[in-house]
Design goal:
The protein has 35 helices and 23 strands. The chain has about 750 residues and is α/β, with parallel strands linked by helices. The strands form 6 sheets. It has a 6-stranded parallel beta sheet with strand order 3-2-6-7-1-8. The chain has a 6-stranded parallel beta sheet with strand order 11-16-15-12-14-13. Helix 2 (about 15-20) packs across helix 3, helix 8 crosses helix 9 (about 140-155) and helix 21 crosses helix 22 (about 415-420). The longest helix has 26 residues, at about 500-525.
């Protein structure tokens, strides 16, 4: 095995190697952006197995299925599939669900419990609000669910919530004093239906370890080594589970970067990684500081920014790559002009650097910012994909079919029943549904059981019951095929010959294909085969947004996404749009220093996605909530050391006042408008320009676009603000960096795209 261990260590730098070799006791690996974190974690697991530890004794927890799958494949390549086949590796939720099914009786759940997705949860909460006679304009389902989710992530059960004066008073101040009643009814309905939501998996795992001693003892002794990826993103519930499971052996290794802790709004606690050494005083700390992703300039710029945070584990990331481009700041007057500038820079890079569309990412703080960017990309016929978390499984026809699959696996799933019972239409209207609901409530039973007593619903319930009887006899694909036909969904969607109807049928066929692939994968495994329909549903339910986004067709397209969605990704060229105060940092998140530090970490994540170049864009006016807003540039831009910025804000030159962030012009200019001339502008044009390139070759005016940065052989570099008129008499209004704004006739102007 020594030769195997040596091969695992090949290619690692000294600190990575030390982190891999240290397999006993508590270990904290602080991994800077682009530092090879995944490789270290993968090789460390392989090294543990190569050292003689049984694979079934090792548990590795990740946040996405994609990460777990890729790591397990790499481990198998390093030490062989046989040695790694019983490794317990997956997302927190997928691994913990296995344990919860194993001990479901002790928790009062059926072993075939199903899992609600977000839309199921919102629907269930909405039903609870209605049943309690509350105003859903005050008790907004999405907000109520968010509050319940936060409580669960902090292990605040219904009884603990009701006993907390602090929480009750906070709800009263928000005009929602009965939120606890919604929480209680929601949990009661979930339990009665044999359902858990995503957060319940963590809550019930904690309850299992707290209240079932034999389960705690068995699981503590089952695993001798526990490894956790992205530890900075863990919440309180995950923290407590990990601490309990590692209590006996204390061979706990956590990997993460406190500088990339950006999910406080989901309940993540940065204290988990900051206080690891307090929890495990004997722990070994390894810092992975060499960045293999980005240029020196990007890494050092990011360092200069994040050093402003006080709550952090000290580290100094560095890169052995080339120095690279300095950060460019794109200043505009409106979000439309900002978008045009960004698109122009993308076109320029493609022309001059041979880049492809897929090399570019445009990041923003809020989803609403994408509209102007999309319009600008469409105007230039540039293909793009938006990573928004919406996926294949959010489509209406897919949710219809999934409701049937869930109902066959767990007939007591009320949300699945409500969606499936009249799809396709069976003459079951609101009156009939209300009758079923009243019967269910009065009898304290599920909608499915109550439905047998309502004539119009009886046949549907009998059909579901007959399909449910087949669960133990057919694999997931065979049963899904039967449900597809028996449900009449196939005939319903097939009857629609429109383009949309054909697309829906194709989507349903694709769903069945995914079930087939799942069954094939499961049956090809050497360990216990899990090819039942409930196994497929669990697999889908536990996919994260990152996993779901993999379904998007992103081949050679510009990527648009929020900074939160970009975590873990990398692109040669990154644009961060909307770099203004109150937008980034987001004013809604600034209640103190703690929140500001989270926003700074978010900006740090944005910068460190880039491999070659970073652009920061801002607008002096922006439409938000139907109103024009003017905000100064984000403080974060100034927090980057000016050595790493090509055109720092507020520098003194002939085109700007001291301390001014924008050229001297009225605040907002649309393409085609002529800004008012000022005496300052007139003065700027008196300077005698120099010839910048004796071999200057201009391009034809048809190759020039609004928003594009260009060069003139005498006036130097600038940006085209607007192009007016009809060819060949087109006029361009150009804002030159040194000589201010000029109006030029393009056929005589002699311009070329700016060279980088």
């Amino acid at each position: 095995m020594e030769s195997k261990k040596n091969s695992i260590l090949e290619g690692l730098n000294s600190e990575q190697r030390k982190a891999v070799e240290c397999i006993s006791g508590p270990v904290l690996i602080v991994a800077g952006a682009g530092s090879g974190k995944t490789r270290v974690l993968t090789n460390r697991i392989a090294y543990i197995l190569a050292s003689g530890v049984e694979s079934s004794k090792v548990m590795a927890l990740t946040f996405t299925k994609k990460a777990a799958t890729e790591m397990k494949e790499r481990i198998a390549r390093l030490i062989g599939e046989q040695a790694a086949r019983r490794l317990v590796m997956g997302t927190f939720h997928s691994v913990f669900v296995r344990f919860l099914r194993e001990y479901s009786d002790a928790l009062g759940y059926p072993s075939n419990f199903t899992i609600y997705d977000t839309s199921d949860q919102q629907s269930a909460v909405k039903a609870c609000i209605k049943e309690l006679g509350l105003d859903d304009k005050v008790y907004k389902p999405k907000e109520v669910l968010s509050r319940i989710s936060m409580a669960k992530n902090n292990l605040v059960t219904v009884s603990a919530y009701r006993a907390s004066q602090e929480l009750l008073v906070a709800d009263s101040r928000c005009k929602r004093p009965r939120l606890i009643d919604v929480y209680e009814l929601y949990q009661r309905k979930l339990k009665a239906a044999g359902v858990m939501d995503f957060d319940d998996i963590l809550v019930n795992m904690n309850i299992l370890l707290r209240d079932v001693p034999q389960a705690l003892d068995a699981l503590q002794n089952r695993f001798s080594h526990i490894l956790v990826d992205e530890y900075q993103d863990t919440n309180r519930a995950q923290y407590v589970i990990i601490k309990k499971l590692s209590q006996i052996h204390r061979n706990i290794c956590v990997v993460g970067d406190d500088s990339q802790s950006i999910y406080a709004f989901r309940g993540a606690k940065i204290e988990n990684i900051l206080n690891f050494k307090k929890d495990y005083p004997e722990c070994r700390l390894f810092r992975l500081e060499q960045n293999y992703r980005s240029t020196k300039n990007i890494v050092e710029a990011a360092n200069s920014l994040i050093s402003k945070n006080e709550g952090r584990i000290p580290k100094e990331c560095w890169s052995d790559a080339e120095r690279g481009d300095r950060i460019r700041i794109l200043q505009s007057f409106t979000e439309a002009e900002e978008a045009a500038m960004i698109v122009s820079e993308i076109s320029s890079r493609i022309r001059t650097a041979g880049a492809m569309y897929q090399d570019f990412a445009i990041l923003y703080r809020t989803n609403s910012q994408s509209r102007a960017l999309e319009e600008a990309l469409r105007r230039r016929n540039i293909p793009y994909v938006i990573y928004s978390g919406n996926s294949f499984f959010e489509r209406a026809e897919i949710k219809d079919m999934m409701a049937y699959l869930k109902l066959v696996v767990n007939p007591n799933d009320d949300e699945a029943f409500k969606r499936a019972v009249n799809k396709p239409a069976r003459g079951i209207g609101d009156t009939t549904k209300d009758a079923v609901l009243q019967l269910a409530n009065s009898a304290g039973t599920s909608l499915f059981k109550a439905g047998f007593q309502v004539p119009k619903v009886q046949a549907f319930c009998q059909k579901i019951d007959a399909l449910a009887q087949l669960r133990g006899t057919l694999d997931a694909y065979a049963l899904a095929q039967k449900i597809y036909g028996e449900s009449e969904l196939y005939a319903f969607y097939k009857s629609d010959n429109s383009i949309e109807g054909l697309a829906r049928v194709a989507n349903l066929d694709e769903l069945l294909n995914s079930v087939s692939v799942f069954v094939e994968e499961q049956q090809s495994r050497e360990d216990e085969v899990q090819d039942r329909l409930e196994d497929f549903l669990e697999n889908v339910s536990l996919l994260s947004n990152v996993d779901l986004n993999e379904d998007e067709d992103s081949s050679n397209k510009v990527s648009l996404m929020t900074v939160h969605s970009a975590k873990g990704l990398e692109y040669p060229y990154v644009f961060v749009a909307g770099m203004e105060e109150n937008l980034f940092p987001n004013v809604g998140n600034l209640n103190g220093a703690r929140e500001l530090e989270e926003e700074r970490r978010l900006f740090y994540v944005a910068i460190t996605r880039a491999m070659k170049a970073v652009y920061l864009s801002l607008a002096s006016t922006r439409m938000r909530n139907g109103k024009h807003e003017s905000n100064p540039p984000s403080r974060f831009i100034r927090e980057i050391d000016e050595r790493y910025v090509e055109n720092p804000l507020g520098r003194k030159d002939s085109s700007r006042d001291e301390g001014s962030f924008f050229p001297m012009r009225r605040p907002a200019v649309r393409y085609g408008e002529r800004p008012l001339s000022t005496s300052a502008e007139n003065r700027q044009t008196t300077a005698k320009p120099d010839i910048i390139d004796p071999n200057f070759v201009p391009v034809d005016m048809s190759q020039l676009f609004e928003g594009e940065r260009v060069e003139h052989n005498r006036f130097g570099a600038g940006r085209i603000i607007s192009i007016d008129g009809v060819a060949p008499e087109l006029k361009a209004r150009i804002l030159f960096d040194r000589y201010g704004e000029k109006l030029l006739l393009l056929k005589y102007a002699k311009l070329r795209p700016e060279k980088h």
